[in-house]
Amino acid sequence: MESKNKNADLSASDGINLPQSANGESGGGELEKIRSILFGEQIRSTEDRLAKLEKQLLAKMTKAHKAIEARLDALEESLSDRTKDLAELQNDLKEQKQEIEADLKTMDASFREAIDSTASTASEDMEAKTDALSQALESSIGKIEKEKVNRGQLSELLSQLAQSLEK
Predict the structure, then answer these.
(1) How far is the CA of 19 from the CAs of 10, 23, 32, 34, 132, in angstroms?
(2) What is the pTM of this model?
(3) What is the dihedral of CA 117, 123, 128, 133, to 10 degrees?
């Protein structure tokens, strides 16, 4: 097709009118034959080389595409494995957290019981000791009162002593 357009361009620009065939082509059939004779082997070898290069390019692209797909598959698998591992670790951490929280609640309850028990025992001991001290104090006060001389009695006794000394 290009050669036909070139023939038309040549004839129009050179002022040469080439005869046209019935189907609208200029007398380029002969020109095509001449070109084919002169350049045919070069064109065929160039076309062959281009076809080979195209096949090589296509093969390399296919090979690269397959390699990229293989790498992507490997990366996806690796990512999937790592995601599973992370999910397992997360579950393990949740379980450990729950165990620790349960242990802390148990320990807290045990400490509260121990504190309450100790406080109760201490309170009972303090009450008992307070009662014992109160009884001991009351007993001591009672003894002191029995043994002490009443002031009124002492003053009366001293007054009698003083009167007897005056007489």
Answers:
(1) 13, 12, 14, 16, 147
(2) 0.41
(3) 150
